[in-house]
Design brief:
Length: 86
Amino acid sequence: MTDAPQRRDSDVTHRLDKQDAVLEDLRTMLVEHKTMHSVTDPALLELINILRGAKFLKQFVIWTAAAIGGLYAFASTAWDHIKFIK
């Protein structure tokens, strides 16, 4: 009977030792991740700014094309349906 509590204590100690190793691995991975993030962060921010500019450019092209198309449709309709003095 006295052997069972000692076995439980050694199991708990063994589990805690494994937990410490896992936590140390996690800490190491977190430090590596933060180091890599500090290296890639400026490039990522620059990419985000470029994409924001591309979105603005995309909207500008769409609105300009729509305006030109509308003006062309108006001019074409006016040319076909309005008599101009020659």
